[in-house]
Every structure is written in C-alpha cells, then in structure tokens.
Q: What sequence folds into this?
C-alpha cells in the first residue's frame, strides 16, 4: 500500500493509500520525491495510436485507459483508494516516437532525434471518487548532434528499452540534452507539478 506523508494523515486516513498503474521505477522514485510511496499495479493496454489522433490526445487517452484498467483489477474496498496513471510520448515534427520495438528501431529514433528540438508529452490521470481527472505536461527538449559511436554505446547499455523516443533523460543520455523548457520530471515520465495538483484537488495532503 502507498502511504502519503502529511500532517493531515489522521484527518484523511481513508485517502492515505494510492495505487500506481505502472511498473516504471522512475515514476515510483518521483512519487517518493513528493512524499508518496506506492503499490504498483501495471496496466496492460493496447497502446496503438488512433488514425489522425494528435499526440496530446493520444497520451491523455492512454493515461486515462491505464487508470481504468487498474480500477478493473480492484475490489470494491480497494476502489476507495486513488489510482494514478501516466503516459509519455516523444514528438518530432508531428511524428510520435513511442517505445522502440527492438535495437534497430531505437537507433532509428536516436538518429532522428540527434540535433533536434522535440516535444515530450506526459499525461497524468487520477481516478478517485468515481471520476478521472487528466492533466497534460508538454516540454521542449533540445538534443545535441549524436555520433554513431555514441548511439551504439547507449544501445549497449540497454537504457533505451521501454522508453518513449528510446532515451531516458535520467540516464547517460542526460549528457546529450542541451536545453529543457518545461518539466524535467515530465520528461522522466511523471510531471510532479501536475501530479501534485491532482492529488491536492482531491484533498490528499502533500507538499
């Protein structure tokens, strides 16, 4: 169970536990940063993008569907607890770069992102009190020009796996990032400002 550190714990004991619809250790660590520890309940859904669906609507939809999928795994009593879900995608020139299917796909994405200014969209959803609220964070990221040697070395680390755009800003690839305009935590996969805003709106006391 996930306990939230707050001076109001006694008053909101019924809200002192949340579920995270994700297996991402990065999201778990980011929640801990704002005083929230969690039980993870990964949501397996179809993450295909719909035809003519914008990147923003795409991540909003997936975040909401992950929260809904997590709710379906809970019993009536467990559904009294908040469920948090998030989804992240990288966009370059209106092209969505999701998680790589294999190493060759990751190399393709990193070559495309080399020397680019691209967007990272992360939507976060909170399911609580029979409703789901979703907020979106968009960050501009400028990446240096990469050599084939740098790309190959990064692929060998395995850090590209299961990451939108095939890189993680919190890993070695962070040394490639020249500029970030927006939420650094959003690029990592969970925008803390938006997450905290959703929790506060439901009376869940955090900083």
A:
């Amino acid at each position: 169970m996930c306990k939230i550190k707050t001076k109001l714990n006694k008053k909101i004991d019924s809200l002192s536990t949340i579920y995270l619809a994700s297996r991402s250790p990065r999201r778990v660590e980011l929640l801990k940063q704002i005083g929230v520890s969690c039980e993870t309940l990964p949501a397996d859904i179809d993450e295909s993008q719909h035809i003519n669906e914008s990147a923003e609507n795409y991540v909003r939809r997936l975040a909401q569907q992950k929260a809904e999928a997590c709710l379906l795994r809970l019993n009536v009593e467990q559904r009294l607890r908040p469920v948090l879900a998030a989804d992240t995608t990288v966009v370059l020139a209106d092209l969505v770069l999701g998680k790589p299917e294999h190493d060759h796909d990751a190399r393709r994405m990193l070559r495309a992102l080399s020397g680019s200014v691209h967007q990272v969209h992360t939507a976060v959803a909170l399911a609580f009190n029979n409703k789901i609220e979703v907020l979106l964070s968009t960050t501009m990221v400028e990446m240096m020009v990469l050599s084939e040697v740098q790309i190959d070395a990064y692929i060998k680390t395995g850090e590209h796996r299961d990451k939108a755009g095939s890189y993680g800003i919190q890993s070695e690839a962070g040394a490639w990032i020249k500029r970030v305009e927006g939420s650094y935590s959003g690029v990592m996969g969970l925008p803390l400002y938006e997450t905290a805003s959703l929790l506060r709106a439901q009376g869940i006391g955090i900083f």
User: Anything to note?
Assistant: The longest strand covers residues 131-143. Residues 3-15 have pLDDT under 50 and may be disordered.
